[in-house]
Amino acid sequence: MKVLFITHSFSRSEGGVSASPELLLATALRDEGVEVLILAPGPGEQSEDINGIAIERFPVPRREMARATTQSAEDNTDASWRSRITTLRFLSAEFTSAVRARREFEPDLVHAHWWFPGGLVGTWVSALGNVPLVTSLHRVDLRAAQAGAFGRPLFRHVMRHSAVVTADSHGLARKAKSTIGAQEPVVAPMPARADLYVPGGERTTDRLLLVSDLDPDQGIEDSLRALALMRAKVSIDIVGQGPRENEYRALAESLSVSARVRWHTGTGAEDLPRFFQAAAALVVPSLTDWLPPVAVHALLCRTPVVAFDFGGVTDVIQHGRTGILVPPGDSLALSRALDALLARSDAGANLGEAGRMYALATFAPESVARRFAGIYRQALAASPP
Length: 385
Known about the structure:
Layout: E1 2-6, H1 14-18, H2 21-29, E2 35-42, E3 46-50, E4 53-59, H3 62-68, H4 81-105, E5 109-113, H5 115-129, E6 133-137, H6 143-146, H7 148-160, E7 164-167, H8 170-180, E8 186-187, E9 207-211, H9 220-229, E10 235-239, H10 245-254, E11 261-264, H11 272-278, E12 281-284, H12 293-300, E13 305-308, E14 324-326, H13 331-343, H14 349-363, H15 365-382
Parallel strand pairs: 1-2, 1-5, 2-4, 5-6, 6-7, 7-8, 9-10, 9-12, 10-11, 12-13, 13-14
Antiparallel strand pairs: 3-4
């Protein structure tokens, strides 16, 4: 089976590409008898081969790509004509390259990652080549569908012309259903770096971990308040950066916990595993619909997770089995859950062990590849010859 991947969220650096979920999936799909060609934007038209996976780049300047896939994609009423023209240029470049790839690669199926712009281009390529389209929704993929006069009709068009639609979490699937009023997408998460996030070293018993952008709705305030309310005098490592950093530092000072908070704002992805491996527990206080990858990374490192019971995190954390869930936005409940976890005789080690087994079965590349190979077969079976 041959599958053409269409994506715009794909790194331009070789190091970044190696960590790409699309590349992880494409590589693992080989063991399922699936050959993948990845079509992605780049600084120029070129071909690459990474881990034996062919990657075709279509030329889009970095600045134009950012504008085309955010501002104009969301169809803001204030969007300039320049932004709209940039979007059309991006779509034209992607479509032209996709047509050429379809002609030369002759795929049995097209798999678009993100409904816009890949899913929209995928509907055109699917129709031209008479091959089924699988469209995958990821994270914030629905913002464009819910914005402006054109977002929702375009989203409905992509959904109607996709043989199968997948979402990377149940929360995102439910939100997509409410947006289009149709059947929920199939839940199929993307793979995690099971080779990078592994158990190692000794876990501490007095250091918590929070890995997040320092933005609103990420629960940073709730975490700091929970830290101030805990009986155990533990510290917390906060790894991330964002526009609210100074505000959160001031809040820690006002709560008299600043001495127990360590801020890590310049940490690279290669340094993250050691934070997960050493932490007593990962705190996931975000209030977002999509699946938080950090929860998966923690479980792969055998680190227990305490999280707000909201959105996509429930796809990762099963209360009392792979972690602990508390009511969203409840700092007191969060503090009590963390105290209870650290007071256990095993300090949550059993939760971490069960969590790792679940994460490997659900998010390891080979597990995800089996899931998507079945989805591809389903799409092919449902499509007329």
